[in-house]
Amino acid sequence: MELSGRGIARSVVRRANSFGATPISSRGVFNRAVGRLGDADGSGALHKAVGGKIVLVTGASSGIGRAAAVRMAAAGALVLVVARSEDQLAEVVEEVTEAGGLAVAYRCDLADLEQVDALVTKVLDAHGHVDILVNNAGMSIRRKVRHSQDRFQDFERPMQLNYFAAVRLTMGLLPTMVERESGQIINISSWAAMLHPARFSGYTASKAALEAWSDCVQGEVHDDGIVFTNVRMPLVRTPMITPTKLYSRMPALSMEQAATVVCDAAVSRSRRVTPLVAAWAAFAESISPSLGDAIRKNAI
Fold this sequence. Notes:
This protein has twelve helices and eight strands. By secondary structure, it is of the alpha/beta class. Helix 4 packs across helix 10 (255-268), helix 7 packs parallel to helix 9 and helix 11 packs across helix 12.
């Protein structure tokens, strides 16, 4: 029996899910995810996945992190929100509290590794453990390499926040997860780690590094009940993409849609969450690297 285009897509999704890789698209899979998560009152699969658990979300003062933190708190999680801005964190805690949820704010400049270590100490002293860590805080730089000749910080800064900070925080919280034989680390990565877009070399390298590190460590904790989930987020309408005028004409997720993807990752515990278009593009490039080069050349 022949399958229609929609039937083939559904078959791909089912097979990918069975192998620990959740494809995402802008329509069907998001609708499916919302159905799995349940209503906004916190019922359904999200409540089962995070209810009564301790979830730490970095970059939680705005954007994807804030939206995901609010959603998880509404589903019954105690959410530890981390960011640099005390004022914005206070707003998040107030929003969660008014909705009947629980949140605790921790101010931390994650680019400062000593502050990360202090954060780990405070969190473990106060709560004993973290069940789910969402490494969401990040930064992006769009600049040609020739314009960074005297700006090596264009590569150091994204690596410091997107990679070293996430690794340091994960390493601090991982031992208690291993001890409890339970835990999940959700890395908000990017489809750039697969597509390698021109002008984003520093940003892409930092995201790819975190994915590679996480995959290596996954092998070490495979039998300890811990899952590393790399969410290769497509474009999202956040302030981060505003400076790139080209993106204003491209399709992108809303922050609420992106938060749905993050929450769904907590439910599915998939190893990877990947946009279908990125997966197809990466496969095409694996067959013909010159095709990927042509796409990147014309994308700048």
